[in-house]
Design brief:
239 residues, alpha+beta, six-stranded antiparallel β-sheet, 10 helices
């Protein structure tokens, strides 16, 4: 069943829980990654004038996801799904998306243009360029009690596909990862790989057994520096 970005926002965890979930998703894909550009990665922000971290899913079957964590500035989630019922480059939705972008708080709006070489200091500067490629956006400031989305009148047939592209964030207790590195779709919750993913999604200290269950060709020692960069806890006794 399709849900809107507003309904997806109601299912999102709070900022601390989302921060852990994003680091866990990046850790799963770090262990399982088969090539450099695959899966989730948790990286320093590419935004030009605010420090922070970003969970980035650059391309998962013509879908992408960025979750920007910027401390006192708050958090912004932006997604793109090729199956959404519109695209931002169409003239008939340009006014709609200009309005949506304008509702994103000043402190987070520059995240919509997240290239590391860009230097957008104001909405006027952003609006003078192409609209960002997104099909769903939500944000939460540190004092907010819930996630917020833009208010707009959706056009007929509107579908932002928010449920699918945001599934790994909104699922309350995932033992699978939908958009990261591929796993066997037929595996059950009792499979060792599913149990290993559940272990990581709970942010339990990473062990050699968990790593080898997901990827026999990698060990905890191989991943230690990258895990430190993500901030995922490690079990010092497992080396």
């Amino acid at each position: 069943m399709n849900i809107t970005v507003g309904e997806a926002a109601a299912r999102m965890p709070d900022i601390p829980a989302l921060f852990d979930r994003c680091r866990a998703l990046a850790t799963v894909d770090l262990i399982c990654r088969t090539h450099e550009d695959a899966g989730y990665r948790f990286v320093p922000s590419g935004c030009s004038y605010t420090v922070g971290d970003v969970l980035r899913l650059p391309n998962a079957g013509d879908r992408s996801l960025d979750v920007h964590f910027h401390g006192e500035a708050g958090v912004l989630v932006m997604a793109w799904d090729v199956d959404a019922g519109f695209v931002t480059v169409q003239e008939d939705v340009e006014e709609l998306w200009t309005d949506i972008v304008a509702q994103v708080p000043d402190s987070l709006r520059h995240c919509l243009w997240h290239g590391p070489d860009e230097d957008h200091q104001s909405f006027d500067d952003c609006a003078s360029r192409d609209l960002p490629q997104l099909s769903a956006v939500m944000w939460r400031l540190p004092d907010d009690t819930a996630w917020r989305t833009a208010r707009f009148d959706p056009p007929e047939g509107f579908d932002d596909c928010a449920d699918y592209v945001l599934q790994d964030l909104t699922e309350p207790a995932p033992f699978t990862v939908e958009h990261g590195e591929a796993f066997d779709d037929d595996r059950s919750p009792s499979d060792p790989s599913s149990q290993a993913i559940r272990h990581i999604m709970a942010m339990r200290p990473l062990t050699e057994d968990v790593v080898r269950t997901l990827n026999p060709d990698r060990g905890l020692a191989d991943l230690a520096p990258l895990l430190c960069a993500i901030g995922y806890p490690q079990d010092a006794t497992s080396h």
